[in-house]
C-alpha cells in the first residue's frame, strides 16, 4: 500500500493529538516505540473517530481542513462502508467467555484494570440519562460495601459455629453430658446446681466414658477404658475428615494460605474457593481440631472466609466478570478470616496487607477494615466462649515489665527464629518426600497413623491431652489466688494479706516442678509431631501449634526467671526492681512473648503479629517486649533463609508466585531470558492480514502458548499487538456460528480495513477487537532486574522483547520464575504451572 502524501508535518498532527488527552493515552502510548510517520499511517482513522466522538467536544484547533486530507477521507469512507456492509466486526456485541481465563493461568492485571475503568466510565455517562440509570450507578457504587457486609456476617457466623462445635466434640472424647448430650463439659456443669467452686470441673450430669459404660471413675480399668475411648473418637474424627476431603473437596486440605497468596497474585485455581470447598472445609475443620491433632483452625479460617468472599462476589457482575476486582474482595475476606480467628480485627487488616495480599489499594484497606469489623461483631454476638470475649485466651496482667527482662525476651526471640528455621526445613523435606514417594498415594493411612501416634502419646500428659487453645490459655494466665492449675502451685505465706491481684513472687511448690517436666516433654512432642502433621490431606493450620510451642518455652523461662529473682533478689540485676515481697515477674507474659516469637519465626510476620498478640491479650503496655521478640525471631530466621513457611510451600508446589520481598541482583539482560533462544524454533506469530482461519486453527492446535504476537508481516516483524489464545478460539467459534460466509479459507485480519482480495474470495474475518494494541514491551538490552520489577509491580502475564519496533521474542512470567530459580542454583523446572 502506497504511503499517502502528507500536506503537513507529523509534529503538527502530534500537537493536535496532545490536546485530546483521552486519545493520546489510548492511541499514542501503545505505539510509543514507532516513528511518528508509522504512527500516523496506522492510526489516522482511529484519530479521526476519537476526535469526532470525544465527549469533551472538538479541540479548538480542530477544523474541517483535517477532514479534507486525502488519507483521512479515504479511510473514513472505507470505515463507513465497513459499518454498513458484511465486513463489520461481529465482536461489537460481546459473546460469552470473552475476557475469562483458563484454569491454572495467570490473569492480566493491566487488562482487568482497563476493563473496570471502561465499565465505570460507561456507568457514569449513563447515570446522566435517567433517574433509573442514576439509581443503578448508586447501587453499583455501594455493591462493594454490601459484599463486605455479607462476608463479615457469614465468616463470623461460621467461626462461631466452628468454635462451639469444636468445644463440644473435643470434650466428647472424654465423656458426655447426661442432661443434654450437645453440651460441652463446661456448659454441662454451668447448668448444674450441684457444682461447687472448688470442684467446678466435676458435676453429676457430666460422666466420663468409664462411669457411663462400667460405672467406674477411678482405677486402672477406668483409666484404660477412657484412654481407648479417647483414641477411638480421635481416629473416627480424623478418618471422617480425610475421607470427606478426598471424596468431595480435595482443595479443602492444608492451611490454604499459600494458595490464597498465589490466587491473590493473579493465578487462577478453579474450585479452590468454591461452594463445595467452603462446606467441606468448614465441616472437616471441626473434625480435625476435635481429633487432637497438632494443628489449628486459624489458617483454614482465612480460606473459609475467602470462599465466602468468592461466593458473594459471584453474585455481583462488577466482581464476577473482573478477576482483578474479585481479588480486592478476597483480600478483604482474608482480613475478616484473621479477625474471627484471633478476635483481632485490626490485626486481620494488617495481616492481609503484610502477608497475603498482592494488590492492596486504599479502597481495599477501608473495605477490609469494615469486613473485619462486621465479622468480629458477629462473632462477639454469638459469644462462643461464654466469656464476652472474642478469643479463648484473653488475659490481663497486673505487673509492668522491667528493662532487665528484655534480655530473656530477646532470648525467646532467638529460640523462635531457630524453631521457625528447623520447622520449615524439616516440614518441607517431609512434604517433598510425601510428593515424590509412595507415601503420597495413601493419604488416609497417613492421617490415621499420625492421629494414632498423636493420641497414644498425648493422653498421659495433661498438657498435650487438652486442646491446644486451652493449653495456650492456661500458659498465658497469671497466677491469681483462685487459680487451681499445677502451674500455680506455689508455697504461700500464711501471713500474706495482700489483695488477690497483687500476689508477691513465691517459691515454687511440687506442682510447679511437676508441671515443668511435663511441659518439657510436651514441648519436645509438639515440635516433632507438628512437623509431620502440617501438610497432610486434611485442613491444618499452623498458628496455634506454633504459638503453643513458644508459649510452653516462654512459660518455663518465665518460671525460671521468677524463681531466680525470688531466691537471689540481692543480685545487681534484681536489686532495683525486684525486692522481697514484690510481684516482679509474670510467667504468663513470657509465654505470650514466646508464642509471638515462634509464630514470627515460622511465618516471618512482624507488624501484624504484634498487633494480633496485643489484641489477644488487651495489654498495650507489652508491645515493646512483643516487638523485640518478633524482630529478633525474624532476624535469626532470615539468617538461615528468607522464606517463611507459606512461601516455602508455594515454591514446593511450583505456583507461579513472584514475591515482592525477594531481591534480584544478577546482571542479566532480557535477551538472555526471552524465547526463542538460539537453536530453538522461531517465535509463533500471527500476521495482520495474510493468514487464513485454517492457518490460525492449525497454529493453535500445534502449540500450547497462551497468546500470539501479531506483526505486520513475517518479513518486517513490525509489532502490531498481542492476541490471547482463548479469545482467538472463542472468536473463531462464534464467527462460524454467527457470521455468514466464514470458512477455513477466510482471511483473518486485525487491521481497521480489510485487505484487497480477489472477487471470488470468501468473506474475511475481522478480529481487531480482541487484539491488544498496547502489549507491554521492553528492549533486548533491558536489565532483568528491571524486567522482574515490572512483572511484580504490574502483574504482567508476558512482555514482548523488541528492537527498534521489530519483534525479537517474548518473556512470560514462567520464564522469569525459571530464570530466578536458575540464578539461585535451584531446579528451574520446579515451576510447574503456567
UniProtKB/TrEMBL annotation:
Domain of life: Eukaryota
Primary location group: membrane
TM region positions: 142-162, 227-252, 273-293, 329-353, 406-430, 442-459, 515-535, 542-561, 589-614
InterPro entries, alphabetized: CBS_dom, CBS_dom_sf, Cl-channel_core, Cl_channel-4, ClC
Keywords: Antiport, ATP-binding, CBS domain, Chloride, Endosome, Ion transport, Membrane, Nucleotide-binding, Repeat, Transmembrane, Transmembrane helix, Transport
An annotated Gene Ontology molecular function: antiporter activity
Location relative to the cell: Endosome membrane; Membrane
Membrane topology annotation: Multi-pass membrane protein
Entry-linked Pfam families: CBS, Voltage_CLC
Classification via SMART domains: CBS
Domain CBS: start-end pairs: 674-740, 771-829
Keyword Cell division among UniProt keywords: no
Cellular component, GO, one term: Golgi apparatus
SUPFAM superfamilies: CBS-domain pair (SSF54631), Clc chloride channel (SSF81340)
Family indicated by similarity: Belongs to the chloride channel (TC 2.A.49) family.
Name of the featured protein: Chloride channel protein
Source organism of this protein record: Trichechus manatus latirostris (Florida manatee)
Underlying gene: CLCN4
Amino acid at each position: 500500500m502506497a504511503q499517502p502524501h502528507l500536506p503537513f508535518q507529523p509534529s503538527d498532527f502530534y500537537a493536535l493529538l496532545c490536546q485530546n488527552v483521552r486519545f493520546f493515552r489510548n492511541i499514542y502510548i501503545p505505539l510509543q516505540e514507532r516513528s511518528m510517520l508509522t504512527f500516523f499511517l496506522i492510526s489516522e482513522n482511529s484519530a479521526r473517530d476519537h476526535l469526532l466522538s470525544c465527549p469533551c467536544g472538538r479541540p479548538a484547533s480542530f477544523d474541517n481542513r483535517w477532514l479534507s486530507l486525502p488519507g483521512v477521507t479515504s479511510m473514513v469512507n472505507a470505515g463507513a462502508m465497513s459499518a454498513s456492509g458484511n465486513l463489520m466486526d461481529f465482536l461489537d456485541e460481546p459473546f460469552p467467555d470473552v475476557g475469562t481465563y483458563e484454569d491454572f493461568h495467570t490473569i492480566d492485571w493491566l487488562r482487568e484494570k482497563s476493563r473496570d475503568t471502561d465499565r465505570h466510565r460507561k456507568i457514569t455517562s449513563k447515570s446522566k440519562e435517567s433517574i433509573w440509570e442514576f439509581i443503578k450507578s448508586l447501587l453499583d457504587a455501594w455493591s462493594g460495601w454490601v459484599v463486605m457486609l455479607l462476608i463479615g456476617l457469614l465468616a463470623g457466623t461460621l467461626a462461631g459455629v466452628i468454635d462451639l462445635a469444636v468445644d463440644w466434640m473435643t470434650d466428647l472424647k472424654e465423656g458426655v453430658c447426661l442432661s443434654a448430650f450437645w453440651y460441652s463439659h463446661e456448659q454441662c456443669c454451668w447448668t448444674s446446681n450441684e457444682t461447687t467452686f472448688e470442684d467446678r470441673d466435676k458435676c453429676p450430669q457430666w460422666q466420663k466414658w468409664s462411669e457411663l459404660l462400667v460405672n467406674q471413675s477411678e482405677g486402672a480399668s477406668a483409666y484404660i477404658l477412657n484412654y481407648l475411648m479417647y483414641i477411638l473418637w480421635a481416629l473416627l474424627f480424623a478418618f471422617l475428615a480425610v475421607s470427606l476431603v478426598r471424596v468431595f473437596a480435595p482443595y479443602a486440605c492444608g492451611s490454604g494460605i499459600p494458595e490464597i497468596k498465589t490466587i491473590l497474585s493473579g493465578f487462577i485455581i478453579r474450585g479452590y474457593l468454591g461452594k463445595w470447598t467452603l462446606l467441606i472445609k468448614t465441616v472437616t475443620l471441626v473434625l480435625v481440631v476435635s481429633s487432637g491433632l497438632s494443628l489449628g483452625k486459624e489458617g483454614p479460617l482465612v480460606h473459609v472466609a475467602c470462599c465466602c468472599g468468592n461466593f458473594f462476589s459471584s453474585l455481583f457482575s462488577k466482581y464476577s466478570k473482573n478477576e482483578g476486582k474479585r481479588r480486592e474482595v478476597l483480600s478483604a475476606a482474608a482480613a475478616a478470616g484473621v479477625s474471627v480467628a484471633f478476635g483481632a480485627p485490626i490485626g486481620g487488616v494488617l495481616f492481609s496487607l503484610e502477608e497475603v495480599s498482592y494488590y492492596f489499594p486504599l479502597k481495599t484497606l477501608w473495605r477490609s477494615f469494615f469486613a473485619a469489623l462486621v465479622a468480629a461483631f458477629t462473632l462477639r454476638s454469638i459469644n462462643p466462649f461464654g466469656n464476652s470475649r472474642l478469643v479463648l485466651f484473653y488475659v490481663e496482667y497486673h505487673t509492668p515489665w522491667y528493662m532487665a527482662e528484655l534480655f530473656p525476651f530477646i532470648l525467646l526471640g532467638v529460640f523462635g527464629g531457630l524453631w521457625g528455621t528447623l520447622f520449615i526445613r524439616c516440614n518441607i523435606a517431609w512434604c517433598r518426600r510425601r510428593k515424590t514417594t509412595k507415601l503420597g498415594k495413601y493419604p488416609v493411612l497417613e492421617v490415621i497413623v499420625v492421629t494414632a501416634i498423636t493420641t497414644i502419646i498425648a493422653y498421659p500428659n495433661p498438657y498435650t491431652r487438652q486442646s491446644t487453645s486451652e493449653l495456650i490459655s492456661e500458659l498465658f494466665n497469671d497466677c491469681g489466688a483462685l487459680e487451681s492449675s499445677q502451674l500455680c502451685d506455689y508455697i504461700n505465706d500464711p501471713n500474706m494479706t495482700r489483695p488477690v491481684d497483687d500476689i508477691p513472687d513465691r517459691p515454687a511448690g511440687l506442682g510447679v516442678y511437676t508441671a515443668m517436666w511435663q511441659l518439657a516433654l510436651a514441648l519436645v512432642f509438639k515440635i516433632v509431631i507438628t512437623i509431620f502433621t502440617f501438610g497432610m490431606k486434611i485442613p491444618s493450620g499452623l498458628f496455634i501449634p506454633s504459638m503453643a510451642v513458644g508459649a510452653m518455652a516462654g512459660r518455663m523461662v518465665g518460671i525460671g526467671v521468677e524463681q531466680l529473682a525470688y531466691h537471689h533478689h540481692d543480685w545487681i540485676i534484681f536489686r532495683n526492681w525486684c525486692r522481697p515481697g514484690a510481684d516482679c515477674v509474670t510467667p504468663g507474659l513470657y509465654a505470650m512473648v514466646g508464642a509471638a516469637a515462634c509464630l514470627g519465626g515460622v511465618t516471618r510476620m512482624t507488624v501484624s503479629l504484634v498487633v494480633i498478640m496485643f489484641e489477644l491479650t488487651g495489654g498495650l503496655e507489652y508491645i515493646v517486649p512483643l516487638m523485640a521478640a518478633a524482630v529478633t525471631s525474624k532476624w535469626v530466621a532470615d539468617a538461615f533463609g528468607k522464606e517463611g513457611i507459606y512461601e516455602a510451600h508455594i515454591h514446593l508446589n511450583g505456583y507461579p508466585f513472584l514475591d515482592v520481598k525477594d531481591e534480584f541482583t544478577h546482571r542479566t539482560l532480557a535477551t538472555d531470558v526471552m524465547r526463542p533462544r538460539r537453536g530453538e524454533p522461531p517465535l509463533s506469530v500471527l500476521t495482520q492480514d495474510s493468514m487464513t482461519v485454517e492457518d490460525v486453527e492449525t497454529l493453535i492446535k500445534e502449540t500450547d502458548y497462551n497468546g500470539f504476537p501479531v506483526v505486520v508481516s513475517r518479513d518486517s516483524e513490525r509489532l502490531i499487538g498481542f492476541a490471547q489464545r482463548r479469545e482467538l478460539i472463542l472468536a473463531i467459534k462464534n464467527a462460524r456460528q454467527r457470521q455468514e460466509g466464514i470458512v477455513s479459507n477466510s482471511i483473518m485480519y486485525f487491521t481497521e480495513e480489510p485487505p484487497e482480495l480477489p472477487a471470488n474470495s470468501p468473506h474475511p474475518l475481522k478480529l481487531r477487537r480482541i487484539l491488544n494494541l498496547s502489549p507491554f514491551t521492553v528492549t533486548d538490552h533491558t536489565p532483568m532486574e528491571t524486567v522482574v520489577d515490572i512483572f511484580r509491580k504490574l502483574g504482567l502475564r508476558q512482555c514482548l522483547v523488541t528492537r527498534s519496533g521489530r519483534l525479537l521474542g517474548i518473556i512470560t512470567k514462567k520464564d522469569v520464575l525459571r530464570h530466578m530459580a536458575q540464578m539461585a542454583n535451584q531446579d528451574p523446572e520446579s515451576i510447574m504451572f503456567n
